[in-house]
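thought: fold this chain, then report.
action: predict
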Amino acid sequence: MSMKRTLLALSMLVLVGCATHRPVLYPNARYQEVGQMQAERDVEECKRMAETAGANAGNSQAGQMAASGAKGAAVGAATGAVAGAIAGNAGQGAGIGAATGLTASLLNSLFREAPPNPAYRNFVDRCLRERGYDITGWN
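observation:
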């Protein structure tokens, strides 16, 4: 039962821990003309438009985390199997290694912010450029 609670807690952290990237606007003539407050409203509107069009900001993070977790579990299982074989129980070593590798990979993914989905970023960039803004990058 405690393993289920741990996995549930990790899942919740993954969902809550997904931070959002934001475009960084260069203070060009358009930005100076409308001011920071309007520029922020325009950014939010462009983000909403991107999501309405089907470009989700977080689409790529879930896939990256799953791949990272699977890779960590595989590496952990192989390492654990070798260590277990040396100690006399390869199966138990593989199980412990897989669980350890998966946990380490998921925790690493939690604290490493994934970049926004390229389609989402391109949509927001284009929307802002069409409104006269210069995007210097994303934070």
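thought: worth noting. The chain has two domains: 22-58+116-139, 61-112.
final: tokens above.
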